[in-house]
């Protein structure tokens, strides 16, 4: 799993790629929490290049969400494959996370919120 960070205006975008699984969960959690801690308070997690996510990967997302929520920030997801979208629905995480088709639309949404 690889994580790249970029900023678009006042929004942080974390681009994930590969597989978000147990072997990578601790590193991914630390990197996402560092973005949350030092970032803008608005975070898009881009899944366009993620091929698979397991329960450990889901726990990474929940940890990042709790971290950003504690700072009164907002976090959304973008670019989910049909399989990952189905997993979000199965685990009901789609009730917690707003999901956008692409990170640019997600960033525009977050930039417009205060």
From TrEMBL:
Matches recorded under Gene3D superfamilies: STAS domain (3.30.750.24)
Domain of life: Bacteria
InterPro entries tied to this protein: Anti-sigma_ant, STAS_dom, STAS_dom_sf
Domain STAS: 1-114
Single GO MF annotation: anti-sigma factor antagonist activity
One Pfam family this sequence matches: STAS
CDD domains from the UniProt entry: STAS_anti-anti-sigma_factors
UniProt cross-references to PROSITE patterns, sorted A to Z: STAS
NCBIfam families per record: ant_ant_sig (TIGR00377)
Family indicated by similarity: Belongs to the anti-sigma-factor antagonist family.
PANTHER family: ANTI-SIGMA FACTOR ANTAGONIST TM_1081-RELATED (PTHR33495:SF2), ANTI-SIGMA FACTOR ANTAGONIST TM_1081-RELATED-RELATED (PTHR33495)
Protein known as: Anti-sigma factor antagonist
Organism: Methylococcus geothermalis
